[in-house]
């Protein structure tokens, strides 16, 4: 009798939803519910799937992760890092690993990058012939503004510009020569830094501040529009998302002070139907555009894989419906995030040239 009960419980456990005691920040690899089959049981795959599912959804999983990270951070803050999320550098500055990896790269596949830029230019020309404006937004890496905070193990000692800066300069120059409209956010960041006396990349955040997003959208939408003068305020969770990625129990740091758009900034009221294509920076832009009520309709193709409207996202499927949707756009903004120079355009313009 006891054996029968044990067998029944074994098969019923996967059907019981496990509470998640403490949610974790960052991209957490989920494990789907184990699907039973006699074949899976015989081969051991069912047991493997069940173990992964149980470890992810067991009520104390998130709590144990946070406890471990809390102890690590409290005991050895300067050495703490999570390879997928954050590297804590000097002077209380947090970097994403991809920026440090980009900085130490010795070489880049320039012919591949050049080909992507030429496709970007051809796609831009095609969309323009369809009456659609295109803007490429250059997003410089945060690491450019915190050179003094780079840990010693990531420093490269050499004369002249580092390889990643050389390839960035070449990429921007080629875009200009091919007639690709580029909005260089580096220039806006310099202007904001001069106006506020502070780098608009928060020390503990992955992305620039809301103020930069506001200024970028102003440049895209209306000549002469500005979000300055700015007002100082406490940074939001979004502006310290690298710190949130530590996933600790305790809040070790007081919120950083940042500058926000002045409350008197008028809504831009652009009225166009827009599409953003890019990294998490276009997600930040989308949030600010919605706050400003900037566009009549706005979608964000996150890494050209997921179509987001606000927080709701669904997989992108290229076909007739996709073509009809692109035709309805008045404006398409494609980001060029410096650490992802190898993926300029995210394959979107390849699809445009193929489908149109």
What attributes characterize this protein structure?
356 residues; alpha/beta; seven-stranded mixed beta sheet; three-stranded antiparallel beta sheet; 15% strand; globular
Description:
The protein has about 350 residues and is α/β, with parallel strands linked by helices. The protein has 2 domains: about 1-60, no CATH class; about 85-355, no CATH class. Helices cover about 40% and strands about 15% of the residues. It has 13 helices and 12 strands. Strands 5-4-12-8-9-10-11 form a 7-stranded mixed beta sheet, sandwiched between helices. The protein has a 3-stranded antiparallel beta sheet with strand order 1-2-3. A two-stranded antiparallel sheet has the order 6-7. A hairpin with a 3-residue loop joins strand 9 (about 295-300) and strand 10.
Name the helicity range. Answer: 40-55%
Number of discrete domains = 2
Discrete helix count: 13
**Average pLDDT metric:** 81
Structural classification: alpha/beta
Residue fraction in strands? 5-15%
Unreliable stretches, pLDDT < 50, 5 or more residues?
77-83
Order of helices and strands: HHHHEEEHHEHEHHEHEEHEEEHEH
Radius of gyration: 23 Å
Describe the SSE topology.
Blueprint: H1 2-12, H2 38-43, H3 45-57, H4 61-75, E1 81-82, E2 86-88, E3 94-95, H5 97-104, H6 110-129, E4 133-139, H7 163-177, E5 182-184, H8 185-196, H9 210-221, E6 231-234, H10 241-244, E7 257-260, E8 273-278, H11 280-291, E9 297-302, E10 306-309, E11 312-315, H12 320-327, E12 331-337, H13 348-355
Parallel strand pairs: 4-5, 4-12, 8-9, 8-12
Antiparallel strand pairs: 1-2, 2-3, 6-7, 9-10, 10-11
Helix pairs in contact: 6-7, 6-13, 8-9, 9-11
């Amino acid at each position: 009798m006891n054996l029968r009960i044990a067998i029944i419980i074994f098969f019923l456990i996967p059907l019981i939803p496990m509470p998640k005691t403490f949610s974790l920040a960052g991209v957490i690899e989920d494990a789907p519910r184990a699907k039973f089959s006699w074949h899976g049981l015989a081969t051991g795959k069912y047991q493997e799937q069940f173990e992964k599912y149980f470890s992810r959804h067991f009520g104390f999983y998130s709590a144990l992760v946070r406890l471990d990270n809390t102890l690590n951070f409290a005991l050895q803050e300067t050495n703490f890092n999570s390879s997928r999320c954050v590297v804590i550098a000097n002077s209380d500055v947090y970097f994403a690993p991809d920026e440090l990896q980009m900085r130490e790269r010795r070489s880049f596949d320039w012919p591949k990058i050049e080909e992507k830029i030429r496709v970007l230019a051809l796609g831009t020309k095609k969309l323009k012939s369809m009456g659609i404006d295109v803007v490429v937004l250059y997003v410089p890496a945060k690491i450019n503004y915190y050179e003094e905070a780079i840990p010693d193990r990531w420093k490269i000692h050499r004369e002249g510009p580092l390889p990643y800066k050389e390839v960035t300069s070449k990429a921007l120059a080629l875009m200009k020569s091919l007639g690709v409209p580029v909005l260089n956010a580096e220039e806006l960041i310099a202007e904001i830094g001069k106006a506020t006396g502070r780098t608009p990349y928060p020390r503990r955040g992955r992305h620039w501040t809301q103020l930069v997003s506001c200024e970028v959208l102003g440049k895209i939408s209306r000549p002469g529009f500005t979000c300055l003068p700015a007002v100082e305020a406490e940074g939001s969770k979004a502006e310290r998302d690298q710190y949130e990625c530590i996933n600790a129990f305790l809040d070790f740091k007081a919120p950083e002070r940042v500058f926000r758009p002045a409350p008197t900034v008028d809504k831009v009221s652009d009225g166009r139907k827009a599409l953003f294509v890019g990294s998490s920076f276009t997600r930040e832009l989308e949030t600010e555009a919605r706050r400003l009520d900037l566009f009549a309709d706005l979608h964000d193709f996150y890494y050209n894989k997921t179509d987001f409207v606000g927080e709701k996202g669904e997989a992108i499927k290229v076909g007739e419906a996709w073509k009809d949707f692109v035709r309805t756009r008045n404006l398409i903004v494609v980001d060029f995030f410096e650490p992802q120079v190898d993926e300029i355009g995210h394959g979107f313009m390849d699809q445009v040239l193929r489908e149109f």
